[in-house]
Specification:
Order of helices and strands: EEEEEEHEEEEEEHEHEHEHEHEH
Largest sheet: 6 strands, mixed
CATH class of the largest domain: Mainly Beta
Structural class: alpha/beta
Shape: globular
Length: about 300
């Protein structure tokens, strides 16, 4: 059995540890911080009328956890040997899910700057990044999208935003960094419906950091004329959200910029990572309805 204790990186180093595995002989990866443990599960109970990608549920350490067949997800072929396969038990978006895989090949530490964005032809696929490791292409999977495709209620549900208070927030200038086109669209719809109009989006942390550095160099302490708040994801090619936050908070001018980390990786076990890099607030992605309230609180916006 694999346990991740003792291998997690210091926050904000610009590196990530990936668990390298295969499904149908193809090489994939997952961020280690999402993996609670790796084990073989034999006690899987089938669920009537379940999604075809869900092999069933299993009782793991007192919790009922759904087991997703990655062979079906990735190859549209049922894995008839799920009970003898290795399973990644993962936690993100405040849920736990098991993923049946083929084999684990190891754990590698790499820089986010070495993770290449998918090209335009594959940007809507289940791949969020490509890694060239010793001439072996490893694809970083979008596990959140896999789960949301199976059950949309596990992710950001637009029904959550119907009760958001609408008022004039047009003077508030916000920069947002997230590599997911879907999340950027949800953030745009959510914030504009709440009354925000000055929103600047970036699809990786490095683009956001370059913009912030430009503001600091051009405007100095007056950069706040152009920006009031940064909202950032954690997992992003080129520069992750923890490293971005650390760079902002260690910068002599930018350090006064409020930063919200908005990520599927905000769990009780991982909150300390955002705290250690100086984030002003952290929120899990499904809680989109509370993001506007958090911005108001952080910037002391009154009715």
């Amino acid at each position: 059995m694999y346990n991740k204790q003792g291998i997690l990186l210091e926050s904000g180093t610009g590196e990530v540890e990936i668990l390298h595995f295969t499904v149908a002989g193809v090489h994939y990866a997952i961020n280690v911080v999402k993996v609670k443990e790796l084990l073989q599960i034999e006690n899987i109970a089938k669920i009537p009328n379940a999604h075809p990608a869900v092999s069933g549920i299993s009782l793991i350490r007192g919790e009922m956890i759904s087991i997703v067949d990655l062979l079906y997800v990735l190859e549209n072929t049922k894995n008839e040997k799920v009970k003898t396969s290795m399973t990644l038990v993962c936690e993100f978006n405040k849920i736990k899910v098991g993923f049946a895989i083929e084999a684990v090949l190891g754990i590698h530490r790499i820089g986010w700057n070495l993770i290449m964005k998918p090209d335009d032809l594959t940007s809507n696929s289940l791949i969020i990044g490509n890694i060239n490791l010793n001439d072996q292409i490893i694809m970083l999977l979008d596990f959140e999208k896999i789960v949301m495709d199976i059950n949309p209620n596990t992710g950001i549900n637009m029904d959550r935003i119907k009760d958001i208070e609408v008022k004039d927030r047009s003077k508030i200038k916000v920069a947002l960094a997230d590599d997911s086109p879907m999340i950027r669209k949800v953030l745009l719809d959510t914030l504009t419906s709440a009354g925000f109009t000055k929103l600047k989006f970036f699809d990786d942390g490095l683009q956001a950091y370059d913009y912030l550095m430009m503001l600091a160099e051009k405007k100095g302490d007056s950069f706040t004329d152009d920006l009031d708040l940064l909202i950032t994801d954690i997992e992003m090619p080129q520069l992750d959200g923890h490293a971005l936050t650390r760079r902002v908070k260690e910068h002599k001018i930018l350090k006064k910029l409020p930063v919200i980390i908005f990520s599927s990786l905000i769990t009780g076990d991982l909150m300390h990572k955002g705290e250690s890099v100086g984030a002003d607030a952290q929120m899990s992605k499904p809680e989109i309805e509370n993001l506007v309230k958090l911005i108001d609180k952080l910037l002391n916006i009154r009715k």
